[in-house]
Amino acid sequence: MRNKILLLEDDISLVDGLKYALTRNGFDVELVRTVQEAESHLSNISAYDLLLLDVTLPDGTGFEVCEKVRKQDQQIPIIFLTASDEEVHIIRGLDSGGDDYITKPFKLGELCSRIRALLRRTGAVKQNKNSVIACGDIAIDLLASRVVLRGRTLDLTSAEYRLICLLVNNVQRVITRSSILNELWDSTGDFVDDNTLSVYVRRLREKIEVDPSHPEHLITVRGFGYQWNEVSL
Q: Where is each OmpR/PhoB-type domain found (predicted)?
């Protein structure tokens, strides 16, 4: 069965090439051109396997659409198409619940690879949603995609959720930065830079650590990567 993508894009010069490339790569594509039109599809969001959202639209932003999807507690994969790779845009996308972003101009082959990688990851998560991971003062309910720290449910983006799952599943083990990129983004790691991973880690620490400058859970192992440290209740 072909994966169905809802594409939100108003750039006429880009739309035809995007639809052609995605269709040739085995995806069914439904196009909307405004935030309002995209939001009219949210009641039937389960019909889609992935959202591809332009950031800047005539009547708003793709971030607004993403936030409304996440408020419905929908974990559908979301990729942003953005004209800027500045950190403020990365953070804005992550905070709204996005999984990935790609900066214009981009190669269509790269976009298709990013989409396939994200669909593989989310598919694997869906297949394994059958238990709760408990680790010291934190518990992850895989069925509900919910993380509870010392009795408090964390407000995590989809990407932060996947990162903390990877770390907690490998408690006390050092995971290299390249391994994290390979696991969470793409098998080659070519499409995400270290800056993006640093943003994810910093934002996650702000949500889980008492003092993010002196973390107890998410530990940096200099020269290697990161390690999740079990902290007792």
A: 130-230
**Distances from the Cα of 74 to the Cα of 28, 36, 51, 98, angstroms:** 20, 19, 11, 12
Across 95-169, where does the E strand assignment appear? 100-103, 132-135, 138-141, 146-149, 152-153
- Mean pLDDT for the chain overall: 85
Strand-pair partners of 52:
7, 79
Tell me, yes or no, whether 233 lies in a domain. no
Within this chain, do residues 71 and 137 fall inside the same structural domain, yes or no?
no
**What residues does 138 pair with on adjacent strands?**
135, 149
**pLDDT tens digit sequence for 198-215:** 888 999 999 999 999 999
Q: What is the Cα–Cα distance from 180 to 165, expressed in whole angstroms?
A: 11
